[in-house]
Amino acid sequence: MATWGSISLLDSNSPLMEQLNFFHDHTLMILILITVLVSYIMISLFFNHFTNRFLLSGQMIEIIWTILPALILFFIAFPSLRLLYLLDELYKPSVTIKAIGHQWYWSYEYSDFKTLDFDSYMIPTNELETDGFRLLEVDNRIILPTNSHIRVIVSAMDVLHSWTVPSLGVKIDATPGRLNQTHIYMNRSGLFYGQCSEICGVNHSFMPIVIESVPTSHFLKWLNSNLNN
Fold first, then answer.
1. Who's near 105: CB < 8 A, 6+ residues apart?
2. Which CATH class is domain 95-228?
3. Structural domain boundaries in the chain
4. Residue 201 and residue 207: Cα distance in Å, rounded?
5. pTM
6. What is the pLDDT of residues 165-203, one digit of tens each?
């Protein structure tokens, strides 16, 4: 079970990631059925000694193996197009944050509050606490409210980066001179980890992302304490 868990997708913490998991299982089931069917036909042909020297054509079977793959592609394409639409659709956001990639750290701005911005660096291994995750902990986490639509605007100051949080189904490029945007919706409180997944230099893997999802009341208290300081 441990090996299977290490190669499967992360537990979903947002509705979009749940839909991505469902689509993954849906596509995987279709591929398994195709693989089993083709393997059975190949094995049966290997051990089949019957021949028909008068067989010149098989129009019916050719029609079947032309139409059937097309129908299978429709069953895969329609859920995929629906997911692409949902991933690009931006609802009315409650909070907007801006993530800017640097070599090699992230800086964040809460666009709704002009004075709230900070840099987020990875904590070195020798400074980690006993319950910290190596190469994943940061000195300043992103604090966001649970059950709220959040817009994330992503850009970069120097080279290409990629702002990625797998458990939320978010992966968006940070391109210099360009603003890309996505949205996240966290349906439970917790810590969600991510990393830069673009090869942006020698230290690109040391650009972790940590989102701390908290209830709205805790988020407002955090805002007040930081804005007053």
1. 119, 120, 121, 122, 207
2. mainly beta
3. 15-48+58-88, 95-228
4. 11
5. 0.81
6. 999 989 999 999 999 999 999 999 999 999 998 888 888
